[in-house]
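We were asked to recover a plausible sequence for a given structure. The inputs and outputs are reproduced exactly as logged, with field labels preserved.

PROBLEM: sequence recovery
POSITIONS: 322
GIVEN STRUCTURE:
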């Protein structure tokens, strides 16, 4: 028969043993140290100058002083002396200094809940994978502020990459919004999750809005200068208005039908007296009448000339483009 227990190494009382209370008390000391185990700290190496009775430390590597040569053991101060106990696989201890529960495994005290930094993946209600490193299966997800603002950021590596939100039905994409392969904000739609059609594009360079058969935006043109607006299609209609906030002029507004294909042409449908139609003439900045606005077309673009005595802002809207 062994003289001590196999797990906690508690000494057994032996037949005809003298002073059995000594052995019994030794077992109680070990139980007092190990039951509901709590340590002052993990990886301790230097004994405290004035330890309290029952104070326990989980020793790390390089222990010194009274702990020298006891690396990796539990050091419990009992009856004015240090009692050293080797922890076994699966023992748990609460670290008072760290404020966390750890388990002894593979020769180290490991956090029962691992650090939530640089995780390979996280699944909530489902399983994450190498692509979907964060996966959530839930009726809803809430992101709220911590006292003021809240911003959700989706970052891509380069201009030609994608940063978007895809809305699916039966795991097949139906709508996508974001930066899909370029720097313009897009809303795209799909009937099968494979072929995508643009529904709305907000152009990154100037904020112009493009939708099938419709595009609108603004253009600032200096005095005696010409500004260009790329047309969303080779043909259609365009409404032009002088909307400068300091001096808007309805006489500098009009509605036109245009062709900016191989044979550019411009047809006036309605216009104010101060807006001139110059067809496919190349505008120079002083082509039109002084004090007026001139409009012309070229391959793939409208040309707006401002001769109204100062920098002006024009609003344009394309209709029925193709």
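RECOVERED SEQUENCE:
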């Amino acid at each position: 028969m062994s003289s001590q227990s196999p797990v906690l190494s508690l000494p057994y009382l032996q037949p005809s043993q003298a002073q059995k209370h000594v052995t019994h008390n030794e077992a109680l000391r070990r139980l007092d140290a190990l039951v509901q185990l709590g340590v002052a700290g993990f990886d301790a190496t230097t004994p405290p100058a004035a330890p309290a009775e029952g104070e326990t430390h989980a020793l790390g590597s390089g222990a010194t002083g009274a702990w020298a040569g006891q690396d990796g053991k539990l050091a419990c101060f009992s009856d004015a002396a240090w009692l050293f106990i080797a922890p076994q696989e699966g023992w748990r201890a609460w670290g008072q200094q760290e404020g966390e529960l750890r388990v002894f495994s593979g020769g180290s005290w490991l956090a029962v809940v691992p650090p939530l930094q640089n995780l390979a993946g996280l699944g909530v209600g489902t399983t994450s994978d190498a692509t979907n490193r964060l996966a959530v299966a839930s009726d809803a997800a809430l992101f709220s502020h911590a006292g003021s603002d809240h911003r959700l950021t989706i970052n891509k590596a380069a201009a030609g990459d994608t940063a978007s939100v895809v809305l699916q039905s039966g795991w097949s994409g139906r709508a996508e919004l974001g930066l899909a392969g370029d720097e313009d904000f897009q809303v795209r739609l799909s009937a099968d999750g494979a072929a995508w059609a643009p529904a709305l594009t907000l152009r990154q360079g100037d904020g112009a809005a493009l939708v099938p058969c419709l595009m609108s935006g603004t253009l600032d043109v200096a005095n005696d200068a010409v500004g260009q607006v790329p047309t969303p299609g080779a043909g259609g209609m365009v409404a032009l208005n002088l909307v400068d906030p300091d001096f808007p002029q309805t006489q500098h507004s009009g509605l036109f039908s245009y062709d900016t294909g191989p044979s550019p042409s411009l047809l006036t449908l309605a216009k104010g007296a101060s807006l001139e139609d110059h067809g496919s003439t190349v505008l120079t900045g002083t082509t039109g009448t002084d004090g007026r606005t001139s409009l012309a077309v070229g391959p793939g673009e409208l040309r707006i000339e401002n001769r109204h005595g100062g920098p002006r802002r024009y609003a344009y809207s394309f209709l029925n483009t193709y």
